[in-house]
Design goal:
It is a single chain. With 173 residues, the protein is of the alpha+beta class. The chain has 4 helices and 12 strands; from the N terminus they run H-E-E-E-E-E-H-E-H-H-E-E-E-E-E-E. Strand 2 and strand 3 (40-46) form a beta hairpin. The radius of gyration is 17 Å and the shape is globular. The two termini are 29 Å apart.
């Protein structure tokens, strides 16, 4: 027997609640996006991050307009994307906690830099150091495209986020 699924009436917009409910079901890798301008550095936990092209190597990241790191990205025209290992979930929590100072956020882990001066976390699955190629507004966020100018990677298990929880990837059998 074929089951018929009733879809809601066609609409040009989806409610914020429905959108967030659906997005919670999608597992995403967890990254810390960082930037530095002068002596100031900051960062945030992000899951809206992906590759755009291999030629030239380009990454995309979505940053809330109100994020303190957004100003640093705009000023420096650079950012780093640090994809976390499953053992780095405490760092993800630090960078997702509102009102923490940059000093408190960067107190965990060992931080260095590659090319742009944006902070790069040691021991990540992969880190991409990027120069901003373009930026545009979309709703509550700015979407940044960054040309990758430096990269590191290790064979580690990636940290995932789904349905408001950090997760690990188990092989499918």
């Amino acid at each position: 027997m074929v089951e018929t699924i009733a879809f809601p009436a066609r609409s040009e917009a989806v409610s914020e609640v429905d959108f967030k409910t659906a997005m919670r079901q999608v597992a995403s890798s967890v990254a810390i996006v960082t930037a530095c301008s002068g002596d100031l550095r900051n960062g945030l936990t992000a899951t809206a991050v992906c590759s755009v092209a291999a030629t030239p190597p380009t990454m995309l990241v979505c940053i809330n307009r109100s994020a303190s790191a957004e100003t640093l990205i705009k000023e420096s025209d650079a950012f780093a994307i640090n994809f976390l290992t499953e053992g780095q979930h405490a760092i993800a929590r630090l960078f997702s906690t509102a009102k923490l100072s940059p000093e408190e956020r960067f107190a965990e882990g060992s931080w260095g830099e590659l090319v742009t001066g944006s902070p790069v976390l040691e021991g990540t699955v992969a880190s991409f150091d990027c120069r901003v190629e373009s930026r545009f507004a979309s709703g509550t966020h700015f979407v940044y495209l960054g040309r990758v100018v430096g990269v590191t990677s290790l064979e580690q298990e990636v940290l995932l986020y789904r349905d408001r929880s950090f997760r690990r990837l188990d092989p499918a059998e």
